[in-house]
Write a structure and sequence with these properties.
With about 140 residues, the protein is α+β, with helices and mostly antiparallel strands. It folds into 2 domains: about 35 residues; about 80 residues, Sandwich (Immunoglobulin-like). The protein has 1 helix and 8 strands. The protein is elongated. The termini are far apart.
């Protein structure tokens, strides 16, 4: 008797699910959106603006491992810009040469070092480049 009740309950649930899903399907088919209610969305991505201050970094190379604690930072920017170099153990502000070249040295800490080099233009615009370099005395 209990086996028959379990089978009957299972069949009843199955029939209920079929009826409910059929009703839902037909209900969804009756929903029609009129053309005047449809909205068209246009997305026009704007290009990333180029920084107005030129800044190129020749040294250090990003993600390079150095075996000396003192490394050279060099690059090129606009002659009237100001260069700010921020590292874990160093903060330097320098002016480039008349042709825009700049160069200085910094001392690295142990392990990974994040170096931010920022050029600040005459009009206040900035351009920042980050380099991550590491110091290790281990021989590879």
């Amino acid at each position: 008797m209990t086996k028959e009740k379990i089978i009957l309950s299972f069949v009843a649930v199955l029939i209920g699910l079929l009826v409910a899903s059929g009703a839902f399907y037909f209900y969804q088919q009756t929903k029609v959106i009129s053309p005047e209610k449809e909205k068209t969305v246009n997305i026009n991505p704007s290009p990333t603006p180029k920084p107005s201050v030129l800044l190129t970094i020749d040294e250090p190379i990003d993600e390079k491992i150095y075996d000396t604690k003192v490394i050279k930072i060099s690059g090129k920017t606009e002659p009237d810009a100001l260069i700010v170099i921020l590292a874990e153990n160093n903060e330097e502000v320098l002016s480039p040469a008349k042709n825009g070249d700049f160069s200085t040295t910094i001392t690295l800490g142990s392990g990974a070092n994040l170096i931010q080099i920022t050029a600040i233009g005459k009009n206040g615009d900035t351009n920042t480049i980050e380099r991550t370099v590491s110091f290790s005395s281990d021989n590879f």
